[in-house]
Amino acid sequence: LDQSQGYRIANGKRPLRLAEIPLVERYLETRAPIGLDEAPPSDGATVAVPVYDLRAAAGAGSLAVDAAPIGRMPFDPLFLRRLQADPSKLFLIEIVGDSGRPTLHHGDHALVDRGQTTPRREGLYVIRIDDVLQVKRLSMNPVTKRLTVKSDNPDYPSHEDVPPDDIAIVGRVIWIGRSLP
Q1: What digits encode the pLDDT tens for the residues 92-125?
Q2: What's the pLDDT score for residue 1?
Q3: Which terminus of the chain faces fewer neighbouring Cβ atoms within 10 Å, N or C?
């Protein structure tokens, strides 16, 4: 049972076979879940970034709850360095909805950098408003320091002149993974 198979099982993409149950039990006994403040484990060749069963809506929003990771996705450390990302600040979540189209698609997985919580440059950010996670494009007015919060899909409204204290910025989306049909 390799990590990609475990990820597909954890996300309901493939069933767990009876013969694999002992492998999963041994894996769970030897792996302590990591919290968001702990560095992800590394085998030297890859960095295992935690995957959370949270959905950040590219639309109306989804409830954000504290949870343990449901799995880990391996990333090459050189790739993460090219992204200028600190592995201890990264996590993956799923995107739901269509307000992020054409950039984001329903079912995409977003690699989020918790170290980037100030929108000094325009980008996609995971934000929390009243315990609801959303992915929106943020830009900051350099003079007033107020935010513009918008969806890439023009069918959804934008909000300008938003006080930064009105939203909690969880992190900046630095990479998107997508399954192709």
Answers
A1: 998 988 888 999 998 899 999 999 999 988 999 9
A2: 59
A3: C
Which of helix, strand or coil describes residue 171? Answer: strand
Residue 76: C-alpha distances to residues 20, 49, 81 (Å)? 27, 10, 9
Give the list of residues 6+ apart from residue 54 with CB closer than 8 angstroms, or none. Answer: 62, 64, 65, 67, 93, 94, 133
Tokens representing 104?
């984001």
CB–CB of 62/132 below 8 Å?
A: yes
For 123-142, the pLDDT digits (tens) are 999 998 877 889 999 999 99
The CA–CA distances, whole Å, from 158 to 137, 145, 162 equal 9, 17, 10
> From CA 170, how far away is CA 26, in angstroms rounded?
33
Residues 6+ apart with CB under 8 A from 175: 83, 110, 111
pTM: 0.71
DSSP state of 118: S
Q: Which of 39, 36, 63 is nearest to 52 (CA)?
A: 36
